[in-house]
Amino acid sequence: MTLDLTQTTDRSAHVGRHVMVWLAQVKTASLSELDNFGDEGTVEQVMKVWVKLSLLISRRRPEIAISSLLKHVLPNIGSQPLKALNRLRLNRLYNILIAEGKKEEARRVFALTKQFLAWAEMQGYLDHSPIASMKKRDVAGRATPPRSRQLTDAEIWVFWHGLDNWALSEQARWALRLCLVSARRPDEIVQAQKAEFDVQLGLWMQGTRNKSQREHVLPISPLMQQCIEALLRAAEPDSPWLVPAPRDPQQPLSKGALNQALRRMIRAPRGLGLEPFTPRDLRRTARSKLSALDTPNDVARKIMNHALEGIDRVYDTHDYLSQMRSAMNTFSDAVEQIINCESYHLLRHRYDGETLSLNDLSIMTMSR
């Protein structure tokens, strides 16, 4: 059987091709082909039925879950009879990941296997799930609290101007700035195509190419326009990508390139001199700044492409474009006012009256 993977190209950017092939095989197989093992199926046999009847229906991005299962579960217990599984065997599976320091992955695999076994019990493939009474906190302890790092006004100034004092490509420099002023995830920046930007309408038509896979259109603010124009000048004319890879302009910049560039700038003895942060923290900074500028929460959620809350997500189908444009322009003006300031010493740090102190080796203190 020949599998058509043309409809999954955008999704497969986050997983290996073998994951998409395995998923396509389950999709195209009939239920009678998958559920043909009687009462004593193996873990993999029953799991394929679960994927077809449950996971594909309930998950927006089933390939992410499948990737974890193919990497950590099926190679270890896929050939075992489902009814022979016990808690000890499953905990040994999670313990391998915990011992390797992959606590979050251990919790993810636990959540997937618990969901699968609960479904198998409900269907009758299993008398009782051996991990039904376990909680996620029982695997590798409590989860790491979510990150809360955001840049202050003074740190935004250092970040923005520090990019000019560090040996970076124009693509990385302006892509990092675009992460901040557009409130986008770094992978949404590096995987953006030139065709998504309508300069005349002032809109970034991202489509469903985002984490939530919701249709998204974002108004282009003045600072966003400045970043986009700089990236277009730096890109090869025949490349379809806004941020093409240096060695192959027909491919986008790698997802980890911006993280690596920023990490080097922070960790270097003569780097930015700021507390560590990541490109994703720039998105949090933008969201926090929107709140500081009195942006209504529903408008901010639309900018971030987060779902509206409660019943509004069902009945409120307004596109919010005019409100988003106003909020993005206000945010752009605020960032421009920060970066046009004479010095970070004149800008607010964490509290009124507190100023940012950089060590003497920082590229920003040495460049004064």
Explain what the structure shows.
This protein is an all-alpha fold and about 375 residues long. The chain has two domains: about 5-140, Tyrosine recombinase, N-terminal domain (DNA polymerase, domain 1, Orthogonal Bundle), CATH 1.10.150.130; about 155-365, hpI Integrase, Chain A (Orthogonal Bundle). Helix content is about 50%, strand content about 5%. The protein contains 16 helices and three strands. The chain has helices at about 15-30, 30-35, 45-60, 60-75, 85-100, 105-125, 155-160, 170-180, 185-190, 220-235, 255-265, 280-290, 295-305, 310-315, 320-340, 365, and strands at about 195-200, 205, 215-220. It has a three-stranded antiparallel β-sheet with strand order 1-2-3. Helix 5 packs antiparallel against helix 6. The protein is elongated and about 75 Å long. The termini are far apart.
Could you write a compact summary of the structure shown?
Helices cover 50% and strands 3% of the residues. It has 368 residues and is mainly alpha-helical.
SSE map:
Layout: H1 17-28, H2 31-34, H3 43-58, H4 62-77, H5 87-99, H6 103-123, H7 153-162, H8 170-182, H9 186-190, E1 197-198, E2 203-207, E3 216-219, H10 222-234, H11 257-267, H12 279-292, H13 297-304, H14 312-315, H15 321-339, H16 363-366
Antiparallel strand pairs: 1-2, 2-3
